[in-house]
Amino acid sequence: MKQLVIELPDDVARQIKPYEDRLQEMVLLGLSQIKAQEALLLYSRGLISFARAAELAGMSYSEMVRQARALGIQPRWSEQMAEEELA
Q: Exposure of 54 by Cβ count < 10 A (0-12 exposed, 13-18 middle, 19+ buried)?
């Protein structure tokens, strides 16, 4: 297992103190959020499809839809896209 040392501002360290036993969970949740945001940025720029964004983020399509909506991004779709997704 790899050990990481992270320097934090004092106020952030104080906020984390009650959750020290859940640091790994916090890192994994943060990583998931960052991956989703980066994938949605690529999607919003038209560089990748929504399905590819979900794949890059390691999320199901429906999870990615929830993430997108939480960030105010509306997935684009057309009847043709829906037919392709269902095929």
A: buried
Would you list the domain boundaries of the chain?
A: 10-86
Residue 82 is encoded by which pair of tokens?
């829906």
Instruction: Count other Cβ atoms within 10 Å, centred on residue 77.
Output: 10
Q: Alpha helix (H) ranges present in 17-60?
A: 23-44, 50-57
pLDDT digits (tens, 9 = 90+) for 15-73: 999 999 999 999 999 999 999 999 999 999 989 989 899 999 999 988 998 899 888 88
pTM of this structure: 0.75
Rg (CA), the chain: 17
Q: 72 in the Ramachandran plot: left (φ > 0), alpha (ψ -120 to 50) or beta?
A: left
